[in-house]
Amino acid sequence: MVEIERGSLPVLEQPEIGPCPQMKEVPSGIQHLKSLKIVDFYEMQREFVLHFQPNRGKDYWKVKKVKIREGTMTETVVILVIDKLVQLIVHESKLLKGVHQEVVDIRDELESIQCFLKDANKGNLQDGVKMWVKQVREAAYHIEDVIDEYVLQVAQHRHQQSLIGFLHKIGHILTKLKPRHDIATKIHDIKISVREIKERSERYGFRFIEQGSCSSESNVTWHDPRVGSLFIEEDEVVGIEATRDELVSWLVGEASKRSVMSVVGMGGIGKTTLAKKVYENEFVKGHFNCHVWITVSQSYNIQKILMSMIKQVYHENEMTPWKIDMIDEITLISQLRKYLQQKRYVVIFDDVWKTEFWEIVKHALPCNDRGSRIIITTRSDLIGVSCKESLFDQIHKLQPLSQDKAWELFCRKAFQSELQRCCPKELVKLSMDIFKKCEGLPLAIVAIGGLLSTKEKVPLEWKKLHDSLSSELECNPHLTSVTKILSLSYHDLPCYLKSCYLYFGIFPEDYSITGARLRQLWAAEGFIKGKKGKSLEDVAEEYLKELIHRNLVQVSFGELDNEMHRKYIIHDLLRETILSKAGELNLSQVLEAGDTTSHGISRCLSIHDAREDVFERSEYSRVRSVFLFNINEMPNSFIVKLFKKFKLLKVLDFEDAPIDYLPQEVGSLFHLKYLSLRRTKVKILPKSVGMLYNLLTLNVMETAVRELPIEIFRLYKLRQILAHSHDLEIERSFYSVRGVKVPERLRCLKDLEALLIIEVNHHGVVLFEELNKLSQLRTLGISNMTAEFGRALCTSIQNMVHLRYLLVFSINEDEIIDLQSISSPPPFLEHISLWGRLKKLPNWIPELQNLLTLVLYFSSLEEDPLPCVQALPNLINLTLSHVYDGEQLHFDEGGFRKLKKLTLRELKTLKMVEIDRGSLPNLEQLEIGPCPQMKELPIGIQHLKSLKILDFYEMHEEFVLRMQPDGGEDYWKVKKDTRKYATKKDTFIELKDRILAKVSSWKARLLSQEAKTTLVNSVANVIPSYITPLFLLPKSLCSTLDICTTLPPRSGSFKGNFDVAVKGNWAVVAAMIMDCSGNIVLAATQKLHSSDVLLGGAAVALLATHLASTSGFRCFDLERDVLLVILAVNQPHLFSSW
Q1: What's residue 237's pLDDT?
Q2: What's the whole-model pTM score?
Q3: Calpha distance 903→827 (Å, rounded)
Q4: If residue 307 lies in a helix (H) or strand (E), which one and from where to where?
């Protein structure tokens, strides 16, 4: 027994007890510990564990407000299995006849083991403990397999009987089932196995090693890999000079108020290095009379931190501190406040992981109006936000190094022994391939560059490193610090987020995935636990946001668009750490072309560019999820084998797979929860999909499926039906989107949350009556809408109190969408997209306080719609296309306070846009065009101080001329914006003239006369033949990089006579296209990297890129320098400088 009297241990934050085999209850009086935050119990008696259980444990009330340390991925697996066992015990007791008690025993043993697993999250594990944890995980997987196989056999038997007969005779049938004997035997064996695992842990008395501690028994010492960041030499600092100077200016600024700067960014991005360089700056040292540097880290002790602060401030002033070791936390804070009250102090808190830290330590830092400054570095956006408590506090989001700075740093490290620190010609391509993996992350660049500096400077050695980089990150001493630092973010994740984060390893490198797809997959895998009042989708969205705030996941596309179009990605090196961890946990395995090893015990199989024999290599009975990526062809036998091998699948993702049918055998996948056929050639869904009773998500978007089978309404658990086609060839056309037909009985799917997009067909009013029953809908898409059904649709929408996304498409451009009858719109509606004529803007739209996105197509409004929507308090994205037939749009002062993206398309009569000062204060992206009557920039555009991206395309010739950098009368208004589009034929011709003039002016030292003649001839022939006609290509095609497929093949012929090779001219064409459209820069560079480009092609591409960047067109930073390298290494005597 442990007894704690009231008033004892007043500042205790983290007690740790165990193993104590005789202790059977929580310490008496533990509820008096008001400072308690974390409780760790491990390897305790079963009775103790039962008393500690939430909801039913008699001692749980004493610690229910305390955060219990979350466990490892193994604990996640155990929790999932416990949940499954509980459901089986409660809801399927008849299925467990004869083995019910043994299942209960297994559950109890796993709950006891679960408490042991919580301690495995603390840090490094001894090998024996690792093996024990692995055995627990495999036992949990085995239990899940046995349960799923048994339930599948029962379901298959039930299918052979009539449903009514089965319900009447279930008891009789079950006693005759052969599986009964099998499961009884297996469960008995599992019970023995689990008990042995538990006893083994008690017998060997496993211990866990805390980070930072040293165990004499294990002889293991933990070293913090971040220490090196504090001792970077000045000549190694690259790319942070501007940010460093900015922070120094802020520190020594005149503002007298105490202020906080939070420097936020992912691990390894250089936060500590930046903070240290700022802290050591001579101006900073002289400006403040009190300096404190504290490294916080994950496992901080607030009392020790306060003591360290006192020692630092007193040491500076040569005063002897009193015996601070004996002083409590509150007294320490009081003494610091008193001492610092008269000081101008600067304090750096490096590597903060918890918001609770700032909530305590801020009380020791008085707001004394003496110009004191505090810098906090953290990986979490939420911590940065929590530290911003006044207008004087700021957040600086640290970004990866630009391409040119990253390359400079890479060369400094990789070629540090070379005099010029330049990359040799023969290593350029390999260097670029390795360098790209770092994605601007200084930690990785320095580590990998340092490792390369130890290698022989020959292509073979560098190729070996390139091909084995994944394994090198795990075991090479030069690189393990990178893995450790990046892995700290994983270890800090709570249990419920670890499985979600590791799921990103399923997808290929540089793969962007929509948030909706992620959330649906997580729900299907069982990673999402429901919360009262929230759907699984809502909880999953919270999980995704938390990963973003921790800077583990980044938005890769559509940051200003609605969530339906937004995509996410992870850093390449984070993916490497994920793959390693997921493989270790048997969570997932990636099979790529040429792989010779496989692990059939993985729960998820991700097949990248695999052959037909992929399933012949190993046994995959444990696989629950299958993904296919980058597969060019897939024979029917491939699909047959897939359904034969994987009987227990929960997830089947065929997105983008080359299949044209779905076999009837899909109905045998009883446990399937997620089925995606998106962007396949499937035209018909088999009736057997009606047997997928556990299905949550059905995705047939962008397929040729035009009708859903009636059997789908047996699937009472369905939450998402996503079904529509999108014709890219008629982009922005009214008919580019088509829905699907649904039979009656839609009302049966009462849990449906997303229904996108269904046609209003011959069912008419009946369809809307059934929609009235779907009260849980959050997303609704309707096509083929006509005016006669407007009132019925309005009634349905009013009943959908949870609705967030609404998309309505009329049957044709002239059909009116009548939505005026809604008197009480859904209060949480966030996104509206209306395609079709409107007599006027629905009068309820201005009432939507939560509306984020409004998209109107083909509305043909006679009145300016802006006054109706300018007061919407949370509107972020507004798109108007074919909406207004007037000549002028006016943005009034004070309107659109939060709007960040504005798109004005196909406004054929629009002549003028006027923006008052004070309107659109937060607008970041403006896109206008085609607007053939508009001849000048919007009046007042110079007032948009937040504008970052400006897109104009297919505009009038006069508009283009006014935008030119040299002499354009409107250019001064937008010259600071980052991107402009002006795709008119005249622009191409002007660019050609500029290129020819520039080439002709080059001196012989820069380019020989022979090479100069080649360039002139190439440009003169290529541009008229191929560039000019291509400006008519749709912008959407350019933005997906598909434009390069429309160019002549490398082996094809060109018009005119050329003095350079075909592939050189091919590169010239690609370079011209990319610069004039502003979208294809990367495509051209990839082609130039992948071949030995001749001087003519590369030089023209370089020149075009340079002219584009100086002419106001978009141009990535990397392009000029990369092309410069290509020229320099191929013809250094011709191209000596730029």
Answers
A1: 75
A2: 0.75
A3: 26
A4: helix 302-316
